[in-house]
Prior knowledge:
By secondary structure, the protein is mostly beta strands. It has one domain. Helices cover about 10% and strands about 15% of the residues. Strands 4, 6, 7 and 8 form a four-stranded antiparallel sheet that branches. The chain starts with a helix and ends in a 42-residue tail after the last strand. The relative contact order is 0.22.
Amino acid sequence: MIVVSGAIAAAFALTGCAPTGYNSSDYGAQPASNAVEAGATSEAEPAATPEATPGAEPEGESEEGGEGAELSEDEITTELKAAAIKRMGETVQNQNGFVLYRFDKDKVKPEAVSNCNDDCAKVWPPALINKGEKPKLDGVDAKLVGTVKRKDGTLQLTLDKWPLYTYIGDKEPGQWKGQNVAGTWFVVTPEGKKNLTCLPAVSKPVAPPSDGDKEEDSPEGTGGSDYSY
């Protein structure tokens, strides 16, 4: 009984690493033992950030830029804001407060390349911007912000050359259910690094929505699609 009680106590001790809304026993959350490049400690309180700047002159923009029709305001990312979240630490959020991620299968050398397209981009919507426009920055260094031309011709914001995305599994601002999905998706810090302060067990991504349908929810922490992205 003592051993069992100890195991239960250990399980409860892991709850601090599970994203808000997740049951740690379902999600399999556990503190990262190698929390390198972490933006802050897991108990960090929201920190003061530098005064917001009007925007950044994107570096590394593709020669042709976006060639498609101009995107509407609700389709683009108008702000990149540094914000600290309990249990995770430093994050970058868009104008709606949704956490941004980076993808290990993308490339940054010799130049930035986004490898998340088609169904992948339905699950991980890229942070887009129109050619010639600049996002408002709050706590993010303008020198690290750039753009990359996607396969469909749109322009995606990058941070330290890493393309930025949101996750449709995050239903509310401040959630970070995309952390360690497929072992390749990670919360990004204001410096463009992976935030490994809290590293839940690898989980599957939610399935891409069907045309005209809302995003499909997977069982918390255990379900998800069989897609590799």
